[in-house]
């Protein structure tokens, strides 16, 4: 139970730090958010829980393969906002486009034998 609480505290701290940093400097907020902190934490916790280098390696490789479609969100959102779409509908639409990109990307990976 304590591990779960610690995970929530770390995640919340990262979100608050990123939003507070971006109020002062958009660049530093972006740097903080762009760091693969979630991946680093997940890899560390997986290692702590399993001590299995092969599992950690497999997760790391999978993260590398699947991170590309998330970039679609960061292309779609500013495009929609600059087109005059209000923030919440633009965010929802950008998330929808990202989900579609993930679905297509997973199919491509599976076609080449890289998916599970």
Write down the Rg.
17 Å
Distance between the termini: 30 Å
Q: Tell me the structural class.
A: mainly alpha
Shape: flat
**Low-confidence runs (pLDDT<50, min 5 residues)?**
none
The helicity comes to over 70%
Series of secondary-structure elements, N-terminal to C-terminal: HHHHHH
Average pLDDT number:
89
Query: How much of the sequence is in beta strands?
Result: under 5%
- By DSSP, the count of extended strands is 0
- Major beta sheet summary: none
Number of helices: 6
Q: Concise description?
A:
By secondary structure, the chain is an all-alpha fold.
Question: Can you lay out the helices and strands and say which pair or pack?
Answer:
Elements lengths: L1 H23 L1 H9 L2 H14 L2 H14 L4 H12 L4 H25 L5
Annotation keywords:
mainly alpha; 84% helix; 116 residues; 6 helices
Structure description:
This protein is an all-alpha fold. It has a domain at 67-116. 84% of the residues lie in helices and 0% in strands. The mean pLDDT is 89.
